[in-house]
Structures are given as C-alpha cells and as structure tokens.
Amino acid sequence: MAVTPAAVPPRVGALIEGYQGPVIDERAVRVAAGLLLTLGLVAATAALAFGTARPLQMFGMFFLLDVLTRLLVSDRLSITLALGRLASRSHSPRWVGAPQKAFAWWLAVGIATTSCIALGSGAIPLQGALALCGVCFTLLALEAIFGWCAGCHLHRRLSRHPTHHCADRSCNL
C-alpha cells in the first residue's frame, strides 16, 4: 500500500479539517514558552548568584533539546509542549499556522546555539551570555505573556508563501 502525502502527519502541527496546512494550538505554545521562560530566568538568576555560567549552559542544552525535538522529530514529543497541552486541555484549541511557528523555533535554535557555543568556548564573559539570553527571554516573554511571536512576524514578511492562520489574525490584513 502506497503512503500518500496526506497520510503522513507533519512533524510540526497537525492537519485539522477546515484549516489550510498544518496548525498548532496557540494556547499550548504560549504555555510552553512560559515554562521555558521560567526555567531560563531561574537559570539566569542562579548564574548571577553563583557567578558561573553553568546553570545557563544546562538550560541552553535543555532548550535546544526541547526545540530541536519539536522541529526534527515531532512537536508531540517536546516536553514543554506536552506540558503546555496538558495545562491547556480544558480550553478549546486556538489553531494557528504551524509553518510560522517552526520558522520562529528555528530562529530560537540559532540564538540558543550561538549562546551555547559562546558560553562553552569562553568566547564571551558571563554578562555577554546573559545579554544573549536576555534577547531569548524577551522573545519568550512576548510570546507567553502577550501572544506576539517575533518569528511569526518575520515569517510573514520574509516568506515567499502566504502565511495562514496567524495568532493575531494579522496575516489576513
């Protein structure tokens, strides 16, 4: 029996009837962003308190593992997204386009990889690492608290393909 492309679920998101392309639950994504933000702020606080980058390195590795799992294996296996789905299960899903979320997560992988390499090699002092992490924390806070995804906004501006199902409905403008 041949497998048709429609039978293969996407790695990021799900195919939901009535939506064009794969979508993902915005509520679960926001909870996951909040969890990552909380863990990151705890790691940054510990790094400042103890004067070592070790907590940030550990957080960075967890962050990369979680986000790369979403992108390369399946978003259903991401620890933070699983917890996000669990926490938001009593609410009806708010479906948003998965391609723009994946784009945003690839940007996050780039920032986190740069931070991890810089920290691991000793190329930048702790304050520089905290500044890089601050960029990531700001983006996580914008997503978790305000529901604004910088990567989704960039995707809408840079993609050759039309963006569908934006969280703020701005792709319909």
TrEMBL record:
Residue ranges constituting the DUF4395 domain according to the UniProt record: 24-160
Position of the signal peptide: none
Keyword terms, alphabetized: Membrane, Transmembrane, Transmembrane helix
Protein origin, superkingdom: Bacteria
Pfam family, one: DUF4395
Spans traversing the lipid bilayer: 31-53, 103-123, 129-150
Protein name as it appears in the record: DUF4395 domain-containing protein
Species: Leucobacter alluvii
Organism phylogeny: Bacteria, Bacillati, Actinomycetota, Actinomycetes, Micrococcales
